[in-house]
Here is the input.
Amino acid sequence: MELGTFMISRIKYGLIAAVFLALFSCKQEDDPVPIPAGATPYIIEVPFGFPQKMNIPANNPMTVEGVELGRYLFYDGRLSGRTHPDSLMSCATCHRQERAFECGIDHPQFTDGRPHGLAGQETPHVMLPLINLVWNGNGYLWNGWVSNDNSVESMRRLEDIVWMTVVDPHEIAGDTSRTKALIASIPGYREMFKAAFGSETVTMERINMAVAQFVRTLISANSKFDRYMRGEEQLSASELNGFVLFTTEEGADCFHCHGGFGNPLFTTNLFYNNGKDTVFPGLDDRFAITGDPMDQGAYKATTLRNIELTGPYMHDGRYPTLEDVIEFYAHGLLWSPYIDPLMHHIANGGTQLTPTEKTDLIAFIRTLRDEDFLTNPAFGPPASLPE
Amino acid sequence: MMKRVLSVFLTIIILMSACKKDTQPEAEDPASGKISFNFHHYCDGQELIFDQRIYTNEAGNEYMVNEIQYFISDVKLVRDDGSYYRIHSWKEIHYVDTDIPETMVWQVYDDIPATQSWNETNSDGHYSGISFTFGISEEKNQSLMFVDPPESLMFWPEYLGGGYHYMKLNGKWLNTNDLEVPFDFHLGIGQIYHPNSGEITGFIQNYFTIDVQAPSFILFDGQEISISLVMHVDRWFKDPHTYDHNEWGGDIMQTQAAMKLGCENGHDVFEVLGVGLK
Here is the structure.
């Protein structure tokens, strides 16, 4: 591959960002802003064992009205800036609640869980689920590109992923001016913007902010394992054995990267080369961001919450099933100079789990499924969209 | 009548406040200063160079270090006569992470007892050493006491004893097959395994105290000083025990014998590089 999709995207995003900055020059400051008059603060109740520190920008405080507006926009295909039924696309087109706000391998529209945008271009990576992002302080996307370290100011926040999605040729392939204009033309939305931001004025930045507020409410913390942690439910013998394998170095040693009892996010939100490859083009991995040679082939360790629903797996979706993933870690690790030092099982080619152990490990991983999260109406589509 | 009552009342008030009270000299605030710790990492006597396999330990293992994370706690400033001031800082457990530069400097919250005199040894302000717990003591090492990263990422699995890692020292070494493979030199609570069933029957607290000799220093009232503390990484693998990665392998959290060796080697891992004014 000559340049790589990611490099092309970076250049395009850079140009688009420059235009975006020029057009929307009243850009957000980092200074705290008060809750808009009349709006109700949205208070996140931190679940047992979860971090107290949350990644909520001071200039986008969460409100009940902002979250609700964000939910509507999340599910509204007119986010594409278009009204033709064939040209509608919202966040929810790909991020399905029943698949933990991931695409899922069984998406009715996208074969094998590989989304493509309105222009027909397949997205270069499989998605990451929208779970517990309010606690992610280490950058978004597989290589953490959207983070406070990004040299482009308008590509640092969860908010920024919204406008990027609108203009991304692999996704909505739209135009922020058109999106803004269409949303602003809908009286029902103007009322919702007034409630959320104290003004009927619709801007792309406010669309970004509202959607980000909603996404920050997507909290998964009531799986069977959570109830086990709270002493409310017991795990089966197989699940318990799987938990031991998950959480011991002589077992599968998943916990160093994927958390556990002491880190219920089930991710460190950090980046690792986990031994998938031996050749690294360096175009879309963590090295592409940091320039640190040891980051070659490193990608974000995804949360394992609801993971049974969010295939295909790895940044490129190479593994369709969980069983494939466990088999890879058991017998398929590939050595390179850049393999993460936590991958000590590379000395044996893998964890070498037996078939029974693999079954138990998967049984434990399935206890991270959270039906409340998958069916909570507060996270689901509105009964109707504004007109 | 009201005027008279009011006048009497006011007169009483004035007289009471005019009474000369027994005066006592106002207590002076005790002399105090501030300290900070700067953490450094050396290998073979030089600043540690990460991610390069340029080191050889006493066992002959060629190795590199990729990252180090650890806790120190119960820090005491020790005087010649053995008395000490224990840092009661609300963040008295300090986390160091070589990937997070901010953790390399620990600005201690306490007002440290200081002196106004050069001559009064064994008094507040005159210190000759530093002592601390490497890791976290049993009393304090409680699961979920850290919920925010990065400290929360140091959790030690409940099944293996709970609490937190004392240290993760991660790197790679060239094994006997000439393959560069990872080692995770992790210290924490050890386990006792039943010889037949393999079940865990007990736990061993491996935390230990390190006494670091320091050049005597005086903290004067109002002063801020900085103590440079260095970890000599190579010393984890020697003295009194030669630690061989080929013997213990890449993971030791469930190998008490290996962790015991490491902890016993830790007695001289730290050194005070210097004490200076901030």
Remarks:
- Chain B has a mean pLDDT of 91.
- The CA atoms of residues 177 and 246 of chain B lie 10 Å apart.
- DSSP finds three helices and 16 strands in chain B.
- The interface with chain A takes residues 51, 66-67, 143-144, 146-149, 152-160, 164, 170-172, 175, 179-184, 186, 249-254 of chain B (CB under 8 Å).
